[in-house]
Amino acid sequence: FTGQVLDTIDKEGLKNTTLVYFASDHGGWLERHEGKRQLGGWNGKYKGGKAMGGWEGGIRVPGIFRWPGVLPASKVIDEPTSLMDIYPTVVHLAGGVLPQDRVIDGRDLMPLLQGTVEHSEHEFLFHYCGIHLHAVRWHQKNSGAIWKAHYMTPVFHPPGAGACYDRGFCPCFGEGVTRHDPPLLFDLARDPSEAKPLSADTEPL
């Protein structure tokens, strides 16, 4: 399907005037199965998957951009962005003005994509499961540190598994989650797999 869309854009002569953004709204669905056949995805070194509001495997996905003549080819950007950025980016490209009567969480991606800035404007990103805040990320400015606090995490089943294989999806609240007070804290720059929560003993800062 994606190839058909790109072929049509090329056939209509719109390749150089069209921004293409290919992404996903979540990581692989680990629990997916048909009968006894396990068909779930794989999120590499990242913990968790689809419908898990906080773990990196549920929220960290690649974005692929194409706009010949405007965006440099083969460039890799390792900065946190959000699908919420689509709206302000499109408004900017269309010559519009963002509403001023509300907070817009997204950011225009063009400066980052074109290389006029090195870092994403997102200093904080809030990660929800449904209406429940599960985690928040702080991309500390002028530092390589990316701190992430988990307030709730899903209870995996069976114990020790990396997903909720008894349900098909991990729940967002209630008995299906563990609440953390104080929150679990990770430095994603050093621990992208979220395997070792920090403590005052291991991270004095």
Pick out its properties.
Alkaline Phosphatase, subunit A, 4 helices, alpha+beta, two-stranded antiparallel ribbon, 205 residues, 13% helix
Secondary structure: elements and pairs:
Blueprint: H1 2-11, E1 20-22, E2 33-34, E3 37-38, H2 56-59, E4 64-66, H3 86-93, H4 110-114, E5 124-129, E6 132-139, E7 146-154, E8 177-187
Antiparallel strand pairs: 1-4, 2-3, 5-6, 6-7, 7-8
Shape: globular
| Annotated CATH topology | Alkaline Phosphatase, subunit A
Helix percent band: 10-25%
CATH superfamily: Alkaline Phosphatase, subunit A
Radius of gyration, taken over Cα atoms and rounded to an integer in Å = 19 Å
Count of domain modules: 1
Euclidean distance between termini CA atoms: 49 Å
Question: Strand order of the main beta sheet, please?
Answer: 5-6-7-8
Overall mean confidence score, pLDDT: 92
Proportion of strand residues: 15-25%
Give the number of DSSP strands: 8
The CATH class is identified as Alpha Beta
The arrangement of helices and strands along the chain is: HEEEHEHHEEEE
Query: Tally the helices: what do you get?
Result: 4
Structural features, described:
- With 205 residues, this protein is of the alpha+beta class.
- Helices cover 13% and strands 21% of the residues.
- It is built from four helices and eight strands; from the N terminus they run αβββαβααββββ.
- The strands form three sheets. It has a four-stranded antiparallel sheet with strand order 5-6-7-8, with no helix packed on it.
- It is globular.
- Keywords: Calcium, Hydrolase, Metal-binding.
- It comes from Corythaeola cristata.
- Pfam families: Sulfatase (PF00884), Sulfatase_C (PF14707).
- Residues 2-95 form the Sulfatase N-terminal domain.
